[in-house]
Amino acid sequence: MADSETALTVDERVSPAETVITEIARREGVSPLSLPPLYDVLDSDVCDRLFQSGTESVGSGRPISFEYSGYDVIVHADGHVGLSPMS
User: Fold this and answer.
1) Hey, how many other C-beta atoms are within 10 angstroms of the C-beta on 50?
2) Does 1 map to a domain?
3) Where is the Halobacterial output domain (predicted)?
4) What are the residues whose beta carbons fall under 8 Å from the beta carbon of 33, sequence distance 6 or more?
5) What letter does residue 81 receive in the DSSP assignment?
6) Fewer beta carbons within 10 angstroms: which end of the chain, N or C?
7) 48-86 pLDDT, tens per residue?
């Protein structure tokens, strides 16, 4: 992640995948529906299950990272999402 990473805390009522989509849309000034489907780069159901609060996850506490819609994204096991524009 670049030094310009912004950390976001995922609301328990909102999935990590939804947090990523909503925040990138906000930054770009577009509707979340205008972004490409997240499932083109990541199985968002798996991501959400890995970081579901209150459950044992198969993620072993390790973050996952991926590129989406011009951003480097990292989802941490503690519910934080990091976003930084790709260079």
Assistant:
1) 20
2) no
3) 14-84
4) none
5) E
6) C
7) 666 665 544 445 577 888 999 999 998 877 777 889 999
